[in-house]
Amino acid sequence: MELCPSVKNVLLLDSEGNRIAAKYYCDDWPTNSTKEAFEKAVFTKTQKTNARTEAEIAMIENNVVVYKFVQNLHFFVTGGEDENELILATVVQGFSDAVGILLSTCSRGQVDKREALENLDLILMCLDEIVDGGIILETDPNVIAGKIASQSLDAGGPLSEQTISQALATAREHLTRSLLK
Amino acid sequence: MAQPFMKKDDDDEEADYSPFLGIEKGAVLQEARVFNDPQLDPRRCSQVITKLLYLLNQGETFTKTEATEVFFAVTKLFQSRDIGLRRMVYLMIKEISPSADEVIIVTSSLMKDMNSKTDMYRANAIRVLCRITDGTLLTQIERYLKQAIVDKNPVVASAALVSGIHLLQTNPEIVKRWSNEVQEAVQSRAALVQFHALAVLHQIRQNDRLAVSKLVTSLTRGSVRSPLAQCLLIRYTSQVIHESAGNSQTGERPFFDYLESCLRHKAEMVILEAARAITELNGVTSRELTPAITVLQLFLSSSKPVLRFAAVRTLNKVAMTHPMAVTNCNIDMESLISDQNRSIATLAITTLLKTGNESSVDRLMKQITNFMSDIADEFKIVVVEAIRSLCLKFPLKYRSLMNFLSNILREEGGFEYKKAIIDSIVILIRDIPEAKESGLLHLCEFIEDCEFTYLSTQILHFLGIEGPKTSDPSKYIRYIYNRVHLENATVRASAVSTLAKFGAMVESLKPRIFVLLRRCLFDSDDEVRDRATLYLNTLGCDDSEVETSASTNEFLFGSLEVPLANLETSLKNYEPSDESFDINSVPKEIKSQPLAEKKAPGKKPTAGLAAPPSGPATTVDAYERLLSSIAEFSSFGKLFKSSAPVELTEAGTEYAVNVVKHIFDSHVLFQYNCTNTIPEVLLENVAVIVDSSDAEEFSEVASKPLRSLPYDSPGQTFVAFEKPDGVPAVGKFSNMLKFIVKEVDLPTGEAEEDGVEDEYQLEDLEVVAADYMLKVGVSNFRNAWESMGADFERVDEYGLGSRESLTEAMNAVIDLLGMQPCEGTEVVPSNSRSHSCLLSGVYIGNVKVLVRLSFGIDGQRDVAMKLAVRSEDESVSDAIHEIVASG
């Protein structure tokens, strides 16, 4: 018997229900079309609700789905029928807050779909740091964001200096390139 | 230089803007060539990987070659020292999940990272390597993994532990060796390390009950800090409580204090987990429930929807078994009816319906009426079902509940919703006699304006059964005849049948019904005209004075005694000839389809038998045809029952033999299906020697050996026994397979001339009472039971001794009797302490048998059973009791 709290999938959709990033950890939805059908069901059932201040919850296809909306980003975490709802809620909270922290330090500083797509690498790493094969890895948004930010920088650089150090790095690359020509 | 694909600081605020607009797999795969550049551009490489991951994430798939190419290209990127790029490389490798021979390429790079000074490298390399590795490689890196588990960086330790959880599925024996390190990690100060370590430790020990119990005992004393780990520990604790329930009869429940103390934990998820664990305890008492209910009640008024949902969902479950315990929350519950989240509102409503008392029903119904208009169909169905059970609980309140149902029936709604309402009304009509007349009128009104053909026909059928028995049947005629004018052909046809039922059962209405039926003779649809003609003729319209005879009624409206699927196959197999189709030849056994398919090769006819064409035949009629084609057995009469095949050999032996027991009135025929699994030999003159000394009532009358049994081509041999006519004789038979072995020259496939006689011992075979019972279901058990009458009813009580569960005890009795459970009563709700099960069957001699079983289980798990049998024959009722008494 599986007793360990587990996550069936983590989804990030836009305000029209399109997939920005998604990760499935179980075989309940074996093909891409079944995944898309599930995402559509989840989106249509939740789109009219207000999940901005507090995470909301719904039962969909015998699964517990906990979700939170930030601007035009819709975050979802799905668990089995008997899963502890509050554990799933911590996961979705961790995910949405970590994405919020990461995106607000990016160039435009907006937490929205466009910024998310432009920094999809951060989102994917974020997913990777939250859940590993259905097992919850980390739920503290600051820790999650910290792990990713420290990697996209030269180790140790503070978050606010990111753009400067990035620019420097690019400049260095250009220089070496032109020297080698 | 290549344009970076992420456009920064663009003024274009178009909402649909995406950096991936127009992205194409082929082009991205081309771009991936930059991975091979001698001078790597880390940023550009990261961007390409992001594009590849984007494609995969959107559901795009790579072919085997594409994936291999990408994988090899990505491995080149280990040269770069850029941290961000390395991180993307890890993601990409996990996403491609390379094959075993490819894994070797990256193993050394990953192992280097596993021992790197950078914690991030170590943690991620462990997770990647464990994801893609296989058992052999694992032993090489095991040493590092053990070190990582006790690493002082929690991220590294968690990575190793989580990988351990996954590896337990594939390589449990390796992970089990990490026990010491894992145990150390359980004491870690880092919250998530503790959680992951506890999960691994429990999985390592899960098959050792004592070890799990020790683990729980030591940890519940309080060294667990992480809320997630605490939740896990609560789950393990309730498992231990569940398993130890059998041997602690007296006194306190072990660990209950721990669960109760968790209700005061500061993390809400722990409180919820503990409260839920308490409510799900086996045979929980109301004293134990109280503290859990109290915290859940507090959650009901939380500002967080998730918390309200969790609480109301738990209370809803409790209300099913302990409605009284939840009544304290009713006021909070009522305020949730207006909750923004409709799931919460629906759960609150249905909980209230379960806990409500008779006096509160009316008030509740008013609240629900307002609520129904703004929820989705799926929630409405849940409410309708709750109202149905409420009505059955308080039959006196049927008037307001029936009104409610009829009101919502008039409103808009989809098929499933309407069907749920109709089903509920039908059940109420059947179970509450006072509700019948008003319920039927509601249904009549509904079909006046019903868009669902299926529902219309169902209601018409039901009206035909119930309508004529009411005080004034004539008032329904108008509604029914309207259908003949207004509806499609299917509904018209069933309206005609319903009219005919009224005509047949209510003598005074007969002349008027005939007038209506005659009008239907001019209908545009064949089926409608045919039905009208049939009914007019059989009900005797020419001479309306004639009383409709019982046999006519039986013919027109009696239930078909054979399963429809069997009738269908029999009709398909019927070939037009001088002999007319005989409905009695249709097998009555409810067949199990998967078995028939699985065993299909086993009954392949061999050369010695006249081979009937093997079509999509079912087991039963395939057996029947097979047997009737063998001259020796054709005199046995009609086949009563064929058992499922019973294996007489272990799987994987040289000769595979199973047996099918065919039961006839005065004979029993064993059909041995033999398969030769050795390519090098040919068996000849295969026969089974049966010793029936332990089965006194049987005497062997005939046998039919199998002339030859080549490799992998199954064949049958038969042995027939005579037994007293119609008597359900039982007995035990021992079997010996006897044959001549001939070696086969494999290349040519020719057998040698001379063979050697040999024997092979098979397992014993038993003919049991259940072999004389056919599984035949009835659609409405209550009706069948009433109409059978109490003339030959036999009731007795039995103690079944200590049993694992009610389900186990019940299944044992069902198997013993070999009867068909009816109306879904073979499912025992969890936690229930008593259960009733309805069985039906046909006993040898074509005697219908109905059985009511009532079980009760006590604290010592002793099961008592009351068995009531009704049948058409006194001796059969007694025989059923004998079966149970001796079984």
From TrEMBL, chain B:
It is found in: Cytoplasm; Golgi apparatus membrane; Cytoplasmic vesicle, COPI-coated vesicle membrane. Residues 770-884 form the Coatomer subunit gamma C-terminal domain. GO terms for molecular function: structural molecule activity. GO terms for cellular component: COPI vesicle coat; endoplasmic reticulum; endoplasmic reticulum-Golgi intermediate compartment; Golgi membrane. Pfam families: Adaptin_N, Coatomer_g_Cpla, COP-gamma_platf. The keyword Ion transport does not apply. Residues 26-539 form the Clathrin/coatomer adaptor adaptin-like N-terminal domain. SUPFAM superfamilies: ARM repeat, Clathrin adaptor appendage domain, Subdomain of clathrin and coatomer appendage domain. Residues 592-616 are annotated as: Disordered. The keyword Ligase does not apply. It is a peripheral membrane protein. GO terms for biological process: endoplasmic reticulum to Golgi vesicle-mediated transport; intra-Golgi vesicle-mediated transport; intracellular protein transport; protein secretion. Keywords: Cytoplasm, Cytoplasmic vesicle, ER-Golgi transport, Golgi apparatus, Membrane, Protein transport, Repeat, Transport. Residues 622-767 form the Coatomer gamma subunit appendage Ig-like subdomain domain. The coatomer is a cytosolic protein complex that binds to dilysine motifs and reversibly associates with Golgi non-clathrin-coated vesicles, which further mediate biosynthetic protein transport from the ER, via the Golgi up to the trans Golgi network. Coatomer complex is required for budding from Golgi membranes, and is essential for the retrograde Golgi-to-ER transport of dilysine-tagged proteins. Oligomeric complex that consists of at least the alpha, beta, beta', gamma, delta, epsilon and zeta subunits. Belongs to the COPG family. This is Coatomer subunit gamma.
